[in-house]
Amino acid sequence: MALRALKFASLTAAASGIYLYGNKFLDPNDFGVVRVGRAIATTAVISYDYLTSLRSVPYGSEEYEFLKSQIKELFMSFEDTPLGAASLAQVHKAVLQDGRTVAVKIQHPKVQAQSSKDILLMEVLLLVVKQIFPDFEFMWLVEEAKKNLPLELDFLHEGRNAEKVAHMLKNFDFLKVPRIYWELSTRRVLLMEFMEGGQVNDRAYMERNGINVNEISRNLGKLYSEMIFVNGFVHCDPHPGNVLVKKCPASGKAHIILLDHGLYQVLSESFRMDYCRLWQALIKADMKRVQKYSRRLGAGDLYPLFACMLTARSWESVNKGIDQSPVSASEDMEIRSNAAAYLPQITQLLNSVPRQMLLLLKTNDLLRGIESALHTRASASSFLNMSRCCIRAVATYQRSKSHSLYRRAQISLTEALSLWQINLYELFLWLKGSQLGNWVIALLRRMQHFTY
Question: How many alpha carbons lie under 13 Å from residue 55 in its C-beta half-sphere?
Fold first, then answer.
């Protein structure tokens, strides 16, 4: 059992400096700082193997004592029941010898070897289906899997993504991203700061803990609008298990905790600008610009369907303005029934839009699911935040392309005025929905009546 554990653990190390247990050979270079770090991380892998296999080792045997000693080298405690498990990895809670509580993400042992076979099998099956049904256009699934799966399997890449997004969005004091412990991490084992909270779609949890649901929804919208429109670096797996919320006991503020940073989409500048301008047109119900930028993003004559897919609204609502009315039950039913009827066109559209759009569509759907669970879907504040980000992103792009000081000043002035208009409109909406606003409106009506 110990030999099997060490063989499993050795797979996480680089080709140089591998510890060959059976031959009693140790590369002298392993005593370097990097190698020592890898050795410690390898112990984490052994610990996992120990916890899952120790039950089959006779208690008190030599093998039992050896495996038990491995976990004690690194962890003071290690919970064998995972906090979460998925197809690629499991996450366990542990306490290091220095007292730090950590989350240990450990890749399943056969994933690396099996992934290429799975992709090949997917490709073969899709080719067979396409031969039977020529209109079947889902080969892009294989292309995306080939591109994204190797990145998701590299936990060091995930750690770098986590640090990048934490630095990128450091101005958002409500956002928390777990710190990565690099000295204890490898491509298959990621040790990070342990953070816990309720899932972002758990309205009951928020109510029990005095967390403002509307504030969470608004901040989540700010977070993703900033990633998509301003930075072009987007966390593309915001399912509820990856987005937690917790109220800070000290400050009383609600934090959003963003986990699992393996899947990100990097948007090109040209794509991001077209996408910004498309959303500006959708919010303003400017149908000419909706058509123009939808076509530029590959939708062609299917631009009405594309607009409906992006907004999850009916074409009638898109024409009226998606910020003018909330989603009704009848509109939801209409969208669901039409989805099946337009499946061939949806397939054609997915095959023709830029690959960058695919993960954004997935991200949009996951965020809408959260909003639906919180009953905050399509709120005015979400559209206002999107508008702010689009204005800032377009202005920054225009300034970068201008060599005239006067022109840059003009762009900045236009940006400031546009943002001021949005702030004024937001204030109007707040007054309209508040008691103070109702009192002011009533007073004005009385004054008007008295004048007459």
Answer: 4
